[in-house]
Amino acid sequence: MSKSKNSKIRAAVLTALGTTAITAMAFLPTNTAIAQTSDSAAAEESSNMIVVTARKIEENLQEIPGAITAFSAEEIQRRSISELEDVALLTPGLVFEDFSNGGFGTPTIRGTTQFSINNLEQNVSTFIDGIYIPRQYAVDIGSTNLERVEVVKGPQSALYGANAFAGAINYVTTNRSLTEISASGEIEVSENKGFDISGNLSVPLIDNMLAMRLGLGFSEYDGDWKNNFPNAATINPGTNGRIGGYDNQSLTVGASFRPIEAVTIDFDYYNFDVSSESRAQYRLDRGAGDFNCSVGGLAFSFATFSFEPAAVENQLFCGELSVDPPAPPGSVDFPEGYVIDPVSYGLESESDIYRANVAVELTDQITANYLFGRSSGSVFSAGQSARNPIDGDLFQGNVVFPFSINPVGSYEYDSHEFRLQYEGDNGIYIMVGAFIQDGDDQDFSTGAVFDAPVTEAITTVPSFATPSDTFTNTNTNAIFGRISVPLMDERLVFELEGRYTDEEKTQIDLTSPDPYEFSDSYFTPRANVSFKITEDNLIYASVAKGIKSGGINNSNLPGGAPLLAEEQFYGPDTNWTYEIGLKNSFMNGLATLNLAAFYIDWGDLQLSVAPTGASQTTTLITQNIGGASIKGLEVEGAIEPIEGLFINAGLAYIDATYDDGTISSRILRANLCGDGTVCNANGDIGGNDLQRTSKLQWNVGASYDIAISDSLELFSRVDVAGQSKQYVSELNVATIEPRVLTNGRIGIRGDRWSVSVWGKNLFDKKYVSNSFYIGGSPFFSVYVPTAGNRRRLGATLTFDY
C-alpha cells in the first residue's frame, strides 16, 4: 500500500473534519435543536420503539409481521461494528463470508447458501438508502456515517426484486434534517498501525427549505497476522508487512430541498474506495499430496497429458481444517505460519452511487415518490495460488508461480422506481409501483502462471494472460404493490404483496462471435396475517416466494463447439418460505422478546454440472438440479432489569439439508468418492447439510451506564457470540471449527464527547473463518482456508455538536 498516498488523504480528511467542526459551531445558534444527546441515545437502546424502513415506509419494528434485526448508530458504535462480518456476528440467522481477498463478499440468510460465489446473481440483496449495490466486492461499505443497518430475513422479492431471494440488507445513512444543525466526528487508534477518522455535518442553509450534508471517512490498518514470506516488507504496493491490512476511504455528499411544503427533493452522492491486502490463507492441494481420505478417481499422466483410470488414494480432505498452515509436502525449511507472496495485491475497488429522491404529498393521505439511482464500480484483485509461494509448484516438470487474477471487472446500473401510496384514516394502506433497471457488467477475470518469482506487485492483468472478457447487459422491468387491510379495530391485519418482473439478459464473450440472449418473467407474491393479542403482543404468519434470476453459461466445449441448446441457459432458483412468529414487549417497553419459526422449500438449485460431451478439463456450467429443505427457529430478546443495565441475546437454529436424490455433478465427474467409503460414489448428496451453514448461532451482550458526576457517565459493553461447525462443501467431509468470540468496550461520556477503550476478539481466538473448495476435476482440487481476525485493541474519541 502506498503510504504517501495515505498521508495526503489523511491530511485532506483531517482538514475537512476540522472545517466541518468549525463550520458547525459557527452556524449553531443557542436555541437550535441538536441531534440526539447521550441521554436520548441511551433511551433508544433500552426502548423497543425502533423505527425501520424495511418495507419502504417508516414503521415500528415491533409492529412489522416479519423477522428484522436492526442496529442504530449508537449500537454500531457501542458494539464495535465496523464491517458486515460484525453485523453477522450479532444477527441470528445471518452469516457473512468475504473469503481470501474480500472480492467475494457473500451474505447468507437462514442457511440459503450461495453455491457459486462468483455468479452475478446473489441470494441476498444489499441496498444503501434504497439503491441496489449489485456486486459482491461493493456490499461491505463499513459503518462510517450510518444511521442504521437493517437485516430483513426471508424472501423480499415482492418489494425488493429478484435477488432478495433470501432477504435483504439495508444501509441507512445519517439524517437529512432541514431544521437541525448537527456535526459529529470520531477518531480511533488501534494496534498494528490502525487509524480511523470520520465525521459528518448537516447544515440547514435556508431553514426548512434547503440543507446540505457531508460525511467523510478514512480507515487504515496494517493487518493482524504476521506474513512469514522472506522480505515481505520490501514490496509496495502489495501485501507487505502484516497480512490483512487495508486503506479505505468513504465520502457522502447530499442536499435536501423543499421548494414547497408538499415537495421534498434529496440528492446524494456516495463514494467508497477500498484497498485491501490478501487475507491470511493457505492451500491444501490434492496434487501436492495434502489430502487424507477417499480412494477412487482418475490418475493424470503428464507423459500422455491424459487421464487414466486408477485407484488413487486421498482424493479429499476429511476432518477439521487447521488454523495452523502445514508446510508444503517436500519443502525444506519452510517458514511456520502464514506465508503470502507480497506481490499479491488483495483487492482494489471503487464504487460510486448517485441518488435522487422526490417525495410529493398529493393529499393528507396520498403520497408519490420517485427514486433514481446510478451505481457503478470497478475492481482488481491478484492473489497467489501456489501451494509453495516461496519456491513455486512443479507442473509438467517445470517450476511455476501461479496467480489467480479474480475478480477483475466493472459495472454500471441505472434504476428508476415510482411509488404511489395511500394511508387511510381507517388503517387501510395501499402502495403501487413500477421499477426499471438497466445494468452492464464486464468481467476480465483470469489466471496467470509465471515461470520465475514475481518481484513487483501485480496491479494489472499480465499481457500473456487471456481474460474471460465477458459482457452482460441486464434489463429489468417490474410492477409491484402492497395492500394492508385492518379489521377488529386494527387488531387483525391482512396484507398482500406482489411483484411481476420481466427480465432480459444479453451476454457476449470471447468464445462466441454472437451474443446470447436470455429472457424470463415471473411473479413473486407474499401474504401476511397478523393479530395483536394486546397492544404489546403480536402474532403473525406469512408465506412468500423468493426468486434468484437465471442466466447464461458462457462456456464452450474444447475446440469451440457450442453447448447444447438446453445447457446454454439456466433458470431461476425458487423458494417458498413459510413463517410464524411472535413479537412481544413487556414492562412498559423495557423488555422485548421476538420469535420466528420458518420452513423453506427450495427448488431448482443453481448447481455446477459438467456439460454433455465435456472432457475432464472442461469448465463446469450452471444448471437447475435438485432441491433443499431448511427449517429453523430464531429468538431475539432484550431487557433493562435495572436502570442503566441493558441485556440482549439472540439465537438461531437452522437445519438445512439437500433433498433426497440431489446429485453433485462435479463430484461425480471427478470420481472423488470412487470407493464410496466417505461419500457416495454416484455423487448423491441427498440428506447432506448445505455447505457454509452453521446449525447454531448465538449471541449475548450487556451494557451498563452509571453517572460518576453531574456531567460524566461511565459506560461499558460486552458481547459474546458463537456458532457451531460448518461443512466446507456439499460432501460434508471437511469442516470449519466452531468458534466463540468476545468483544468489549469501556469508556467515559460527557455532554458532547466520549472516550473509550475497546477490544475485538479479546481472548485472541485463532480460527478458520471460511474456506473455498475448488473441485470438480481430478486434475485440480483444492481447499483454501482463510483465517479470521486476531485480537485487536484500540481507543476511540467521539464528539458531536
Indicate the topology.
Blueprint: H1 3-27, H2 38-46, E1 51-52, E2 59-60, E3 68-72, H3 73-78, H4 84-89, E4 94-97, E5 106-109, E6 124-128, E7 131-132, E8 146-153, H5 157-160, E9 167-173, E10 182-190, E11 194-206, E12 210-226, E13 242-260, E14 263-276, E15 284-285, E16 296-301, E17 306-312, E18 319-320, E19 347-361, E20 366-380, E21 383-384, E22 393-395, E23 398-405, E24 409-423, E25 429-443, E26 446-450, E27 470-487, E28 492-508, E29 516-534, E30 537-548, E31 551-552, E32 569-570, E33 573-586, E34 591-603, E35 606-609, E36 621-624, E37 627-642, E38 645-658, H6 665-670, E39 696-707, E40 713-723, E41 726-727, E42 734-736, E43 739-749, E44 753-760, E45 768-777, E46 780-787, E47 792-800
Parallel strand pairs: 6-9, 18-42
Antiparallel strand pairs: 1-2, 3-8, 4-5, 6-7, 8-9, 10-11, 10-47, 11-12, 12-13, 13-14, 14-19, 15-46, 16-17, 19-20, 20-24, 21-23, 22-23, 23-26, 24-25, 25-27, 27-28, 28-29, 29-30, 30-33, 31-32, 33-34, 34-37, 35-36, 37-38, 38-39, 39-40, 40-43, 41-42, 43-44, 44-47, 45-46
